[in-house]
Design goal:
The structure holds three protein chains of three kinds.
Chain A (H helix, E strand, L loop, with lengths): L7 H12 L7 E2 L2 H4 L16 E3 L4 H14 L3 E4 L16 E4 L6 E5 L4 E4 L5 H8 L4 E2 L12 H7 L6 H4 L6 E7 L5 E5 L10 H5 L8 E8 L1 E2 L3 E9 L2 H13 L6 E6 H11 L9 E9 L1 H17 L4 E4 L3 H12 L1 H5 L5 E4 L9 H15 L3 E6 L4 E8 L6 H18 L18 H4 L2 H14 L14 H10 L15
Parallel strand pairs in A: 2-4, 3-4
Antiparallel strand pairs in A: 1-2, 5-6, 6-10, 7-11, 8-9, 8-10, 12-14, 12-15, 13-14, 13-17, 16-18, 17-18
Chain B lengths: L15 H14 L3 E4 L14 E4 L6 E5 L4 E5 L4 H10 L2 E2 L13 H7 L6 H4 L2 H4 E7 L5 E5 L11 H5 L8 E8 L1 E2 L3 E8 L2 H12 L5 E6 L3 E8 L1 H11 L2 E2 L3 H9 L12 E5 L12 E5 L4 E5 L4 H10 L3 E6 L13 H14 L15
Parallel strand pairs in B: 1-2
Antiparallel strand pairs in B: 3-4, 4-8, 5-9, 6-7, 6-8, 10-12, 10-13, 11-12, 14-16, 14-17, 15-16
Chain C lengths: L6 H4 L2 H12 L11 H6 L6 H12 L6 H8 L6 H5 L6 H15 L4 H13 L3 H14 L5 H4 L18 E5 L5 H4 L2 H12 L2 E4 L9 H5 L3 H20 L4 E4 L2 H13 L7 H10 E3 H7 L14 E4 L3 H6 L5 H8 L3 E2 L15 H4 L1 H16 L5 E4 L2 H8 L6 E3 H7 L14
Parallel strand pairs in C: 1-2, 1-3, 3-4, 5-6, 5-7, 7-8
Classes of the chains: A alpha+beta, B alpha+beta, C alpha/beta.
């Protein structure tokens, strides 16, 4: 592999080649400019790329890929840089390919309820554009104001309405992507399915390792006639967990079902002033949507269940403004936690919901023994838990302790039958924990699939899927439950 | 995984080791394997040669916890058994997998990836797949995905397996998201011309109505509404139409192709198009399902002409039943995409042991 | 965000403040979504998160080049990012600190230096600007169209109310507004007069100091502040209840006097008191019983309101003027992307004309899409900028209100240019 220091000549030569296809302002190469691109939304991991390119057209993206693949130079794709797993962390010897300038909505087909968009379009911008038609794009990650649809596809982003409306994979219908050597391929189409293998599913959530997505067809849904949200306060998180199970057992599939613990409630309240009860141990936000009549009936049912499950208080939003305010607090919960500590580290495990109480107790024990506070935000409907570990990166040793605590939390998620990442992706952050979740043959299978798309291994190397050697080292460092992971791999 | 889900008393048998041994043997002898569950969908896809690998004995619901909305079962488990277990807890498989026969298994439903009338409104088979345990082409047992709603760790191999017709590996176990059964359900019938029917189905789909089926038989338009009782009632008022008496058997007949439309010797084509596509100018008899996006055609028109029409409309065609099962049954892929398919096949099943040629010539 | 300041900065007040601002940033990137220049360039370096990075590098001891300065220059200081930021990062303040550090490290070219010096020498000085404007108007006919459209047309002020009420409020002398649009202050006085309040013009009060301050000339800016404090103080002691600002850009600055002069032993206490008593005109009206004004705009006009950044992001008063106008019977046309800057941004339209022009085009399209009869705003800078290319009249909202007061001599005047 080429390295910057070893071969400045090659770097200059690459810049010269790229200048033929891209304007000079679209190629950043001095360290002063590169620094702003050293990380994505996860600032604990930083690396200066060799170059940043900002193409404006698919043709320019193709030219970048062709130039890199000819020279064996790695390429890392980046959208809005809001990812929380370091998926867009640059490669020191590679090109960081920003797709932010490909931000046009190409077509809105109201009759077939789809929109064709470029990857740099913001998630929220799609819903805003189709709002006059009474339609919207359902997945709504908390960062939807800023995150790009291309990044959403790469990470298979979720949101607070996943239980009812699914993740990104359920809400897109076609993709156009470039192979690392610059060939343009289309999967899916206007029909509900397509011939051959489900490459749409395979590419969604592939974290930029299989291809560079340059166009996306998203599905649009009719905006529900009415949405109403109930906010319930509990003096005990376990009761809130039981209320979630009771709502689902009653045959209700809420549009959103979210839980926040006390620390998260206080942080969000300070920013949004949503009227959250700041002394509650936990709150549940339960949103119902659909036809007017349906919502009216179900909101009563939900109120009853929440009260039966021991809610200290239950409020429903008085109007649309208050409903949006209730959600604004939840959506801003992560960065709002930034008010409690200089830095936070966000985990993304998913667990079978029945283990919630047990997991929360274990997290608070681990938090106490690590000496770091943890705020919990929980997509309660689908079991996706976001513990936010508060730390101060300027304090020596804090980051390391936060990382260790995070790793223990993810191991706990796997232990209770869950997964290390529900919606943020593995990126660079959770790559070691992949070794806990997958066996060596399964990881080998992933590498074989990667090879089918990217034989040179140039797209986002070192992310998402660990090498077996890396797992062996991780296993040696950390013997779990007395069992040595990957005993078959030779250790150093 | 220790405290999994509650076990359901059922006829269970774990024969994954036996299956794994059979795959190893096939690899040693270089023979192809034709994977078969209940045999109900053996007509589908291209004709396959090879020794039969029967998954029927690998059966049983492994875990089902209604409040988690997740069910895990072995591939040989009959669909009817799964549906009965779910019905007991007032839940269902929302993608309404076609059975095409009493012996239909979960493995066959997922391997073909077929979905019933509810699909455009509730989601497809692959949308509900959460995880899968498989045997790959090197006779290794691998687990992908999981038993939780959201899981983005690793490539989504479980969904890649869905609809791959067993050409990438043997499904051993599948975890599915399940949903509560709607409290109320009702089917309305209206007389419409084909163009009107397509229009109206798509107008309804743009409105927040509790649709769960839209099917047009050339004369009558059938609309199914599902959801909370007040919602169904309100939607009924808005849409109008006569209430269909025995609606359950109607939708079953569409799902399992027992409807009179499917009788007779002519080849059955499946034309998948954007739902609002106007009626296609291909001679034959039509039945429109999925709100206009899945169109069944009984026709002896030649394949290239049908392909052309569908491609022009932005869709694709499958020779679903009958006709020449040794030629191209599925819509041809462009060369670059075909090449990528071959590489994926090679990554999963390098010795080409599973269902050789069932999807396209060569795999 | 992890930050390691250089030794000497760690001991300065600015350095410590910058550090605490930087530490609040969690790098989530939400700010890029509402940043007007990120919208234009789609480059991290032209959004708040990237600029924070650039400032951070300087604070950590890296020597800035023209590149850093260029991206900091391109910032409008609109502070839309602060409204969006869930972590409460005081970006505007950080940028001021960063700009002044970079100003010391990077020598601008001679043309740029001259332009900035000239702006500072003319704009904040009422008399100099007045002369310039009169001259420009007199030669308007021989100027190219592109230049002449930028020269605001002459409009008369109307009378200043003669009655004297017990309740008194103080006006800011201002810099460019009295020359360009003297009617704004007069209309303010007339509407307040209706409400039983006398607005006092105080000799000695002039420019608020914002322009110099944001061009990196901190001391010069603070001197303007001290002069205003000196001018207002006797009246405050005599019982004036508030300082009323009808240019939201000045309002943001005056409200900051307390913070900016906290380190000045002579002025700190008085500055803090002045900031406490400062109100945007809309805040004053919102608290008064406006029934005496009646539904003045009723049936008169459909208007589009552009809420200046300094009002909605700087003073967090979005929606207040809109409420007053609606109550008064005006029909407000819907405006998309209300959070975006019009591109005026103080001296920005003169220093970054291309970006400014692009933002102006976007903004006018949004404002005029609802087919209003006039555009209202709340800051003289935005007013002049919008007016240069708008196809309908642009007025301060208080003029709209004033022009429709019953029996008023200028009844409905805003509808004609």
């Amino acid at each position: 592999m080429v390295t910057r220091d070893l071969n400045p000549h090659m770097r200059r030569e690459l810049i010269r080649t790229l200048r033929r296809s891209l304007p000079a302002a679209a190629i950043l190469h001095d360290p002063e400019a590169l620094r702003a691109y050293e990380c994505d939304g996860l600032s604990a991991y930083r690396e200066l790329p060799m170059l940043v390119v900002l193409p404006e057209t698919v043709e320019q993206v193709r030219a970048v890929l062709a130039a890199c693949s000819e020279r064996g130079i790695p390429v890392v794709a980046r959208g809005a840089g809001t990812g929380l797993s370091g998926g867009a962390l640059p490669n020191a010897d590679g090109v960081l390919l920003s797709l932010a300038k490909l931000n046009r909505i190409l077509e809105i087909d109201e009759h077939n309820r789809i929109a064709r968009v470029q990857p740099g379009v913001r998630n929220l911008a799609i819903s805003e554009a189709v709002a006059p038609l009474g339609l919207y794009y359902a997945p709504d990650p908390s960062s939807q104001i800023a995150c790009s649809i291309g990044g959403n596809v790469a990470e298979n982003a979720g949101g607070i309405h996943c239980l009812k409306y699914g993740l990104t994979v359920h809400n897109i219908q076609a993709l156009t992507f470039l192979t690392p050597d610059g060939r343009l391929l289309a999967v899916g189409g206007g029909a509900p399915d397509s011939p051959g293998y489900d490459l749409l599913a395979l590419l969604t959530g592939s974290e930029g390792l299989l291809g560079i997505i340059v166009e996306i067809v998203v599905k649009l849904l009719p905006r529900p006639e009415r949405a109403q949200v109930a906010l319930a306060a509990f003096d005990d998180a376990e009761k809130a967990g039981a209320a979630v199970a009771a709502i689902i057992a009653a045959g209700i599939v809420p549009a959103g079902l979210e839980m926040m613990d006390n620390l998260a409630i206080r942080a969000a309240e300070e920013y949004v002033h949503a009227g959250y009860p700041v002394d509650a141990a936990a709150i549940l936000l339960c949103e119902l949507d659909g036809m007017n009549e349906e919502v009216s009936e179900q909101i009563l049912q939900v109120r009853r269940i929440l009260t039966q499950c021991g809610a200290a208080s239950v409020r429903t939003a008085q109007d649309e403004r208050e409903r949006l305010l209730f959600w604004a607090g939840r959506k801003a919960a992560f960065p709002a936690v930034g008010r409690l500590a200089p830095d936070y580290y966000c985990m993304d495990g998913t667990i079978p919901r029945r283990n919630l109480a047990r997991v929360l107790v274990r997290i608070s024990e681990m938090s106490a023994s690590a000496g770091l506070r943890v705020a919990n935000v929980f997509h309660a409907g689908d079991g996706n838990l976001h513990p936010l570990i508060l730390y101060d990166a300027s304090r020596p040793g804090d980051l390391e302790r936060a990382e260790q605590l995070g790793a223990r939390i993810l191991e706990l998620c796997v232990e209770v039958g869950g997964t290390i990442t529900g919606e943020h992706g593995v990126g660079v952050e959770k790559i070691d924990q992949m070794c806990l979740q997958f066996s060596a043959p399964a990881l080998t299978q992933f590498h074989a699939l990667k090879h089918a798309f990217d034989p040179q291994g140039l797209l986002n190397p070192g992310k998402a899927i660990p090498t077996l050697r890396r797992c062996a080292e991780y296993g040696a460092m950390h013997v779990h439950g007395g069992k040595l992971h990957f005993p078959e791999i030779e250790r150093f | 995984m220790g405290n999994q889900t509650e076990r359901v008393a059922t006829d269970t048998l774990d024969s994954s080791e036996l299956l794994q041994e059979q795959v190893r043997a096939a690899l040693r002898s270089g023979t192809g394997l034709q994977i078969s569950g209940g045999g109900s969908k053996s007509f589908y896809g291209r004709r396959v040669s090879g020794v039969t690998l029967s998954t029927a004995a690998h059966r049983g619901i492994v875990g089902y916890d209604p409040s988690e909305l997740v069910l895990t079962a072995r591939c040989g488990t009959p669909l009817s058994e799964i549906e009965a277990a779910l019905a007991e807890r007032n839940q269902m498989l929302a993608f309404e997998p076609p059975h095409f026969g009493g012996a239909a298994t979960l493995g066959g439903a997922i391997a073909t990836g077929l979905s019933g009338p509810r699909r455009p409104y509730a989601g497809s088979a692959r949308d509900f797949v959460l995880g899968a345990k498989i045997i790959n082409g090197q006779a290794e047992v691998l687990a992908f995905g999981g038993q939780v709603m959201k899981n983005v760790a690793g490539y989504d191999v479980a969904r890649l397996m869905t609809g791959a017709l067993g050409t990438l590996g043997v499904l051993l176990e599948v975890s599915l998201k399940v949903l509560p059964r709607p409290a109320a359900e009702l089917t309305l019938v209206q007389h419409r011309t084909p163009a009107e029917a397509i229009d109206v189905m798509n107008i309804w789909a743009r409105r927040p109505l509790p649709l769960s089926g839209c099917c047009f038989d050339g004369d009558r338009l059938y609309v199914r509404l599902s959801g909370a009782e007040p919602a169904v009632r309100a939607a009924h008022d808005r849409i109008g139409g006569e209430i269909l008496k025995d609606d359950r058997s109607f939708w079953l007949s569409v799902r399992d192709q027992q409807h009179a439309f499917f009788d007779g010797p002519l080849p059955l084509w499946r034309v998948a198009v954007p739902p609002a596509t106007p009626p296609l100018d291909i001679p034959g008899k039509w039945l429109l399902d999925w709100g206009g996006s899945q169109r069944w055609l009984r026709s002896d028109a030649d394949a290239p002409a049908i392909h052309r029409h569908a491609s022009r409309a932005g869709g694709h065609v499958t020779l679903f039943r009958g006709g020449d099962r040794s030629g191209d049954v599925f819509h041809p892929l462009v060369p670059d995409l075909m090449e990528l398919h071959r590489r994926i096949k090679a990554a999963m099943d390098p010795e080409q042991v599973f269902n050789p040629g069932r999807m396209y010539a060569g795999f | 965000m992890q930050t390691t300041l250089t030794e000497d900065l760690r001991h300065s007040a600015d350095g410590r403040e910058a550090e605490s601002i930087l530490r609040a940033c969690v790098h989530c990137g939400f700010c890029t979504a509402t940043c007007p220049t990120y919208g234009v360039f789609r480059d991290e370096l032209d959004g708040p998160r990237g600029r924070i990075y650039l400032v951070k590098q300087v604070l950590e001891g890296a020597v800035a080049t023209r590149r850093t300065q260029l991206h900091l220059d391109r910032c409008l200081s609109c502070r839309a990012c602060e409204t969006t930021c869930p972590s409460g990062v005081h970006y505007g303040r950080l940028l001021d600190i960063g700009r002044s550090l970079v100003e010391r490290q990077v020598r601008r070219n001679i043309v740029d230096r001259f332009k900035r010096r000239l702006l500072r020498a003319v704009i904040p000085h009422r008399r100099r600007f007045g002369i310039l404007l009169r001259t420009a108007r007199s030669v308007r006919g021989i100027l190219p169209a592109a230049w002449s459209s930028a020269i605001p047309p002459l409009r008369t002020a109307g009378s200043w109310p003669s009655s004297s009420h017990r309740r008194k409020m103080l006006a800011l002398g201002g810099c460019v507004q009295p020359s360009i649009s003297p009617n704004i202050d007069a209309a303010t006085a007339r509407v307040l007069d209706h409400l039983g309040i006398s607005l006092l013009r105080v000799s000695g009060s002039g420019c608020c100091g914002a322009m110099s301050y944001h061009l990196g000339a901190h001391q010069e800016g603070l001197d303007f502040a001290r002069r205003n404090i000196d001018a207002w103080w006797p009246h405050i002691e005599a019982g004036a209840e508030a300082v009323v600002l009808n240019a939201s850009g000045c309002g943001v600055m005056v409200k900051e006097y307390g913070k900016l002069l906290a380190g000045d032993p002579v002025y700190a206490a008085r500055a803090a008191r002045i900031s406490e008593l400062s109100r945007d005109l809309s805040e004053v009206l919102a608290r008064e019983d406006r029934s005496v004004l009646g539904r003045t705009g009723s049936g008169t006009a459909r208007i589009a309101f552009h809420c200046p950044c300094t009002l909605q992001h700087g003073q967090k008063l979005g929606g207040v003027v809109e409420g007053i106008l609606t109550d008064a019977g005006f029909e407000l046309a819907p405006v998309a992307d209300m959070h975006l800057c019009c591109g005026s941004a103080g001296t920005y339209s003169l220093l970054q004309p291309q970006i400014s022009r692009q933002l102006l085009t976007q903004k006018l399209a949004a404002l005029e899409s609802g087919q209003p009869l006039a555009i209202g705003t709340a800051n003289i800078g935005c007013l002049v900028h919008l007016q240069s290319r708008a196809s309908v009249p642009v007025r301060h909202w208080i003029e709209l209100l004033d022009a429709c007061l019953p029996g008023h001599e200028q009844d409905g005047q805003f509808i004609t240019r």
